[in-house]
Specification:
139 residues; 0% strand
Length: 139
Amino acid sequence: MTTSPKTRLAPEQVLRAADYVELVWQEQGSEEEKAALAEFHVDGPGLARLIGEFGALLADYLTVVPDEHADCESAYVAGKLVAVASRYLERWCLASGAGAHTAWIAAGFLIECMQEVDTVHQYLADIRHDAAFGWPATA
């Protein structure tokens, strides 16, 4: 179940962050991909902030427990772990001195999290849809 995320990002920022994460995920080393990454990396500190705030959505989008077990203690613990990982990622990306390298590593971390509980493609599709058409109502 997805709840309405508490994001400070505008929809176009969410879409830009999703584009960056997808590029990092699918990058095969072509000249076009290298150029696209270089374009993103020009604004290193801004990119790190963007990916950190995008990473804060992790807790809202990664559902590691089926709905029928949402009231179990293990679901509570799993939710707390995702929340902690999300907060730490955001703090790390917002830290002084964070730049393109930080954004690259953070994107890799997000990709690993997405792959553990879902597919990267589905996660990015869900968040792009919600950013484009409005966040889902809180259940």
